[in-house]
Design a protein that fits this description.
heterodimer; A: mainly alpha; 4 helices; globular; B: mainly alpha; 5-stranded mixed beta sheet; two-stranded parallel ribbon; 26 helices; 7 strands; 62% helix; disordered N terminus; disordered C terminus
Chain lengths: 132, 652
């Protein structure tokens, strides 16, 4: 099965935006618990775990979940001990992290496509006689 | 079509003479083999599809039988055998179907992993979602204290380490507060469904861990199934340790999968070289040593090490014991050479010490004496984990003995499994190290009489692996009917023990809505600073206004005032006890004092401490007979009593 490299960064960016809207717009259940729950459990972790290119979706998912929960916990702890507790600020920090991670994933994809595309363009002329 | 093309091509007679033709012929043969395999696979496909369909239908039938079994669960009919006393036969049939189906699915080598995962998820749902669906309130009376801590954070936005131990390790509570505010889900809903949530969370890192230990899928999936069938200790509820255990699993999963040291490095010193030679002599015949899998590149290596530190930081900020359990495991892996970043345990130890000495110093300063006292008392610490069963009911004794036998039996089976693996040529070194690593902590602490069972929890992943290895010691593609039969029987026996061990104290663990109503009555009316007396410290209290009220258990109060319980009549409530209680409830330091007697507290006292049953009721009757106490609130399960000469306005 062909993997969809754009799926996760796109899902993270869309989820980040949707969670922002759901929380700031104070949407009711089931939309807000679903969106915010999904965001908190998967997005901050998957944004960075995917950068490791572990090539095993199950492992990525397990680590992404663990990293998301750890990041959420550490952000919450930091807000608590800094005495600046605010769910909005916590969400903003997690959204920023997720966006940075997803953007890095997109940049990595863009770079790798350029690297792949370059030899292919050069190779066209070499293969040309055969193709004729 | 493709097959016909392959067969139609004549075999080249002279190909072996010409290397180019030889290569071409090899390619052709490979193509033919592939085509043949495709045809065979196509021939198998209908039967495979049928098998998968039947397995999915079996899971659906099991779930369909489980749902009608839920309304029969009446917590007021629970006896000393626990939940098994109120479950309908349909529940057991559904679990039986899952066990048989899983055993059969495991033996079919073409069965996709998602079917096995479906079985395990269904198993987790049936065993961990039954009570949230049957009850309206979260289980475990002490869960309500955790709800209270999160409620405090939501109200105040800070933590006060002087309040109690929870406020010195608030990581999990801070996460839950953030989760509550962002999702809008109530704390009670989170507490109600936490057990299902955490068990589903454990799936990922456990799969990572077991896959790092063996490439035999039967062994991996059976170990996963057994973990959930053997995890009876009840540390997977709405509590910091449940989350901490998840991070522990993630840490060992990452280390064993990507950060395991190469065995070649073991011969770096003379001593190590000698040890390796000795091991090789002892384990002559061992052919499969779990060595390095999936070597990580430098970026992965550094990032995964950083990730382990992040997971550990989340553990350190959340729980008191889990950091030490994790550190013991990582240290053991590093000592035996299965954790490549050798400095990792040191980094983790620094992180743990920094938290205790810098953040939790308030709690440490008050409690250092007894912590130091219990260090080194292995036997005393172990003994504190086992209660005296001589005066318990048959049901209670059966449940307690099942817990003990299951704990010892799993460890025994794991040892047998490890021996069988070695005899078959497999030396699962890292799993063996993780199995033993938590035991030294028994020398450090009794952990309130729970250490033995916490050790069981942390050794359980590897114990489940070795118990599974007892049945599947070697990698093979075919499974005999005998092994399948034994798998089903062993799973069934362990599952029956699990139901008794995990749900045996359900009478104590159930918290009725009426109990909570009584506590709410107190919190809504009591002036700030009031005293709330309860039967035990495990009462369902503190879920509102955590810092606003003083709480004390009657047993502890009497003990503090020098009333020692005689072994034959431990809870005799006489004139001395009455005078102490009166004195405390009339104490002018408290604006008001309430005596809260809940169903849950009565069951706790009856189950764990007392014979004959009913001492809290006897006590309440004596207090009321004295004429100096009055009931200000009562419902079917709970009562609230106040002292008659309490300051005006308290007994409304």
């Amino acid at each position: 099965m062909r993997r969809l490299p754009l799926l996760w960064p796109a899902a993270i960016l869309v989820s980040t935006a949707a969670t922002g809207v759901a929380v700031l717009g104070n949407l009711g259940p089931p939309l807000r618990p679903l969106l915010a729950g999904w965001f908190l459990l998967f997005c901050p972790g998957m944004a960075f775990v995917r950068l490791l290119r572990l090539e095993d979706p199950a492992s990525e998912l397990a680590l992404g979940l663990a990293l998301s929960l750890a990041t959420d916990t550490l952000v919450a702890i930091a807000l608590l001990y800094a005495r600046v507790w605010s769910a909005g600020l916590g969400l903003a920090l997690l959204m920023a992290m997720s966006t940075v991670g997803a953007t890095l994933q997109l940049l990595g994809l863009w770079r790798s496509r350029r690297v792949i595309a370059r030899p292919a363009t050069e190779g066209e002329s070499d293969d040309a006689p055969d193709s004729r | 079509m493709r097959k016909r093309e392959v067969q139609a091509r004549p075999a080249a007679m002279e190909t072996w003479r010409d290397p180019r033709r030889q290569r071409k012929e090899q390619r052709r043969q490979a193509q033919a083999r592939k085509a043949g395999a495709t045809v065979r696979a196509a021939a198998l496909r209908p039967s495979r599809k049928t098998a998968i369909t039947w397995q999915v239908i079996l899971v659906a039938i099991a779930l369909a039988m489980w749902i009608p079994a839920l309304p029969s669960i009446d917590p007021y009919r629970l006896n000393d055998f626990g939940l098994v006393s109120v479950l309908s036969p349909a529940f057991y049939v559904s679990l039986g179907l899952l066990t048989i189906g899983f055993g059969l699915a495991l033996r079919q080598r073409h069965m996709p992993s998602w079917v096995l995962l479906l079985y395990i998820v269904a198993f987790i749902v049936i065993t961990r979602a039954t009570l949230p669906l049957a009850y309206a309130t979260p289980r475990y009376p002490w869960t309500y204290k955790h709800v209270g801590v999160v409620d405090y954070i939501l109200r105040k936005g800070i933590v006060d380490p002087a309040i109690d131990i929870y406020f010195n390790w608030p990581g999990f509570f801070a996460f839950s507060a953030l989760f509550t505010q962002l999702t809008g889900l109530s704390l009670y809903a989170q507490a109600l469904w936490a057990q299902l949530f955490f068990n589903l969370l454990y799936l990922g890192p456990l799969l990572l861990l077991f896959k790092a230990c063996s490439s035999d899928r039967r062994l991996v999936w059976l170990a996963l199934w057994l973990f959930f069938a053997l995890n009876w200790v009840g540390q997977d509820y709405y509590a910091p340790q449940a989350m901490g255990f998840f991070f522990y699993l993630a840490i060992v999963g990452v280390i064993l999968t990507w950060l395991k040291a190469e065995p070649a490095g073991a011969e770096s010193s003379r001593l190590r070289g000698g040890l390796v030679a000795l091991r090789d002599r002892v384990l002559r015949g061992v052919t499969h040593v779990d060595g390095e899998r999936r070597p990580a590149n430098l970026t992965q290596y550094a990032s995964l090490t950083a990730m382990v530190i992040v997971f550990y930081a989340a553990i350190v900020s959340s729980h008191q014991l889990t950091p030490f359990m994790t550190l013991a495991s990582v240290l053991a892996l590093a000592i035996f050479g299965y954790c490549r970043p050798r400095l990792l345990p040191i980094l983790l130890a620094v992180l743990c010490s920094a938290w205790i000495l810098y953040v939790a110093y308030t709690w440490l300063g008050v409690n250092l004496d007894w912590i130091v006292d219990s260090v080194g008392s292995v036997f005393s610490n172990a003994k504190k984990n086992l209660i005296d069963l001589s005066r318990s009911s048959v049901g209670r004794r059966t449940v307690a003995l099942t817990c003990r036998m299951l704990t010892a039996g799993v460890f025994g089976l794991a040892i047998l499994g490890a021996i069988r693996r070695v005899r078959k040529g497999y030396w699962d070194r890292s799993a063996a190290v993780l199995l033993i690593a938590p035991f030294p902590l028994l020398a450090a602490q009794s952990y309130g009489g729970e250490m033995l069972f916490r050790i069981y929890l942390f050794m359980l992943p590897c114990a489940a692996f070795f118990v599974a290895a007892l049945l599947y010691p070697v990698e093979a593609t075919l499974t005999s009917y005998r092994t399948t039969f034994l798998t089903i029987v062993l799973s069934g026996v362990l599952l029956a023990a699990f139901m008794l061990a995990h749900y045996g104290d359900e009478k104590v663990h159930y918290v009725s809505p009426a109990d909570l109503e009584a506590a709410k009555y107190v919190y809504e009316r009591a002036p700030r600073g009031s005293l709330v007396l309860t039967g035990t410290l495990d009462a369902p209290v503190k879920f509102e206004g955590y810092e606003q009220f003083a709480h004390q258990a009657i047993g502890d109060l009497l003990l503090d005032r020098g009333v020692t319980r005689s072994p034959s009549h431990p809870y005799t409530f006489g004139a001395t006890e009455m005078a102490i209680l009166e004195g405390v409830m009339a104490d002018e330091r408290y604006p008001a004092a309430y005596l809260l007697i809940t169903r849950s507290d009565r069951e706790t006292v009856n189950t764990y401490h007392i014979e004959p049953p009913g001492p809290l009721d006897i006590m309440a009757a004596k207090l009321l007979q004295s004429g100096r106490f009055v009931v200000v609130y009562a419902n079917a399960d709970a009562q609230v009593l106040v002292y008659k000469h309490a300051p005006a306005g308290t007994a409304q």
